[in-house]
Amino acid sequence: MIEQNAFNEDMLAFLEASPTPFHAVAEMSRRLVEAGFTELNEADAWQLKPGGKYYVQRNQSSLVAFVYGQKPLLDGGWRLWGAHTDSPCLKLKPHADLEKKGYRQWGVQVYGGALLNPWFDRDLSLAGRVHFKTSEGKHRRCLINLKRPIAIIPSLAIHLDREANNSRTVNPQTDMPPIVCHNEGDTDLQSLLLEHLRGSGYAVANEVVDFDLSLFDTQAPAQVGWRNEFIASARLDNLLSCYVGLAGLLAAGDATHSVLVCNDHEEVGSQSAIGAQGPMLKAILKRIVGSYEDFERAINRSLMVSADNAHGVHPNYADRHDNNHGPLLNAGPVIKINANQRYASTSETNTLFSAFCKACDVPVQQFVIRSDMGCGSTIGPITSSELGVRTVDIGVPTFAMHSCRELAGSSDAHGLAKVARHFMACETLPEV
Predict the structure, then answer these.
(1) CA distances (Å), 30 to each of 27, 232, 246, 361, in order?
(2) What gap in Å lies between CA 129 and CA 193, rounded to an integer?
(3) May I ask the CATH architecture of the domain 4-87+234-425?
(4) Are 413 and 396 in contact (CB under 8 A)?
(5) What residues contact residue 310 under an 8 Å CB cut-off, 6+ apart?
(6) Which of the two ends of the chain, N or C, has the fewest CB atoms closer than 10 A to its terminal CB?
């Protein structure tokens, strides 16, 4: 495992290259290919070889990568690491163009449970997928990332809202449309996108047919704090877990049957063809094993780690946590537990994960929500119920979850990557 600072710098590069789920999957795919993985097409017949390394995409925004291990699958089962590629954000509406008082603005939809106030007064750019028609009438698609700041959502001056610091609320329909430019000439979205496409190697673009585009904060990810104790970035929830799982998979070797699944649509319920509640992972695992009986036998010997960030104890709001279950940043990964099955962790799977952490000399913490507060959820319970696989929900403790800039500890992802590599290389699960 590379040392912590180099690990974090590479993780920051991954985060910056991944402003949308499409870009995250493209970046993971690039790294997988560099490591010798082969892309599989679900429409083709597969010829898997022991020691082979493969990956599958759906919709360019969900990915399953796996090693077809040298050891017999039915002896040890799968080592599954699950995360999600999507994050709360602002997505452009299909007919986004707005004009008011001479300014060009865009209508936006709030994707997921976004914390809205931090989006104001940020230098925003645009990224995602565009479908276009060429001058010859052919349909094509591409990913775009403008990178530079091209929009902003200005706050209302306090002189015009004297109660802003006491009771400010945000109306996403009326308060969130960003200002893009003065409304002069060809400033409608279609014209601006065509201008960008033609200047970015797609000179044949003649008409924008459709798109899936999101705004993102252009401030670069960074190590912050007096001694660089923290990682500050957009989309730590949950691209940090995708990166950690990818690092574990690439370092695990080819003896075991290890799997990385990164689903889109977790932030909106996972109910889609590419979400955790859809058929993607189960269909791929069934194709790997070949028969229903062998699938059930393999699942019985398997374990899944559902990795999604946890709520660290914020020093300004410590009373929002249960006193005995308050995770600290830079104190190790967190096992997430909920009696009502919002998390899939059980005493058995908690014990297994704790054993992996102990073997790597990585401390482990536990999180339980206050009994008078509602609990979020993850892909863990969904995937566990879809597959019947034993699952533990874990994550790196984080501040400002669902903000456009979140904060995690600089040692936690590195430590969790050690655990991920050990877990995914483990040939036989310990007895517990």
Answers:
(1) 5, 24, 12, 31
(2) 11
(3) 3-Layer(aba) Sandwich (3.40)
(4) yes
(5) 327, 333, 334, 336, 367, 394, 395, 396, 397, 398
(6) C
Q: What is the model's pLDDT at position 164?
A: 87
Reference 252, options 425, 95, 134; nearest CA is: 425
Of the options 3.30.1330.10, 1.20.1250.20, 3.20.20.105, 2.30.250.10, the CATH number for the domain spanning 89-217: 2.30.250.10
| pLDDT, averaged in runs of 10, over the chain (432 residues) | 90 98 98 98 96 97 98 96 98 97 97 97 98 95 98 96 89 97 92 95 94 98 97 98 98 96 97 96 96 96 97 95 94 96 96 97 96 91 96 98 97 98 94 82
Q: Are 421 and 248 in contact (CB under 8 A)?
A: yes
The CA–CA distances, whole Å, from 145 to 13, 121, 148, 222, 282 equal 15, 20, 9, 20, 32
Domain residue spans of the chain: 4-87+234-425, 89-217
- Domains 4-87+234-425 and 89-217 alike in fold: no
Within 13 Å, how many C-alpha atoms sit on residue 110's CB side?
17
Per-residue pLDDT tens digits for 117-158: 999 999 999 999 999 999 899 999 999 999 999 999 999 999
CB-CB neighbours of 4 under 10 Å: 15
Global model pTM greater than 0.90: yes
Instruction: Give the bridge partners for 116, in sequence order.
Output: none
| Pairing outcome for strands 406-409 and 391-395 | unpaired
- What is the secondary structure of 320-351 as a DSSP string? GS-TT----TTS--EEE--TTSSS---HHHHH
**331 in Cβ contact with 357 (< 8 Å):** no
In our burial notation (b when 16+ CB lie closer than 10 A, e otherwise), range 241-261 reads bbbbbbbbbbbbebbbbbbbb
Do β-strands 205-217 and 124-134 pair in parallel, antiparallel, or remain unpaired? antiparallel
Q: What does the alpha-carbon distance between residue 386 and residue 384 come to, in Å, rounded to a whole number?
A: 6
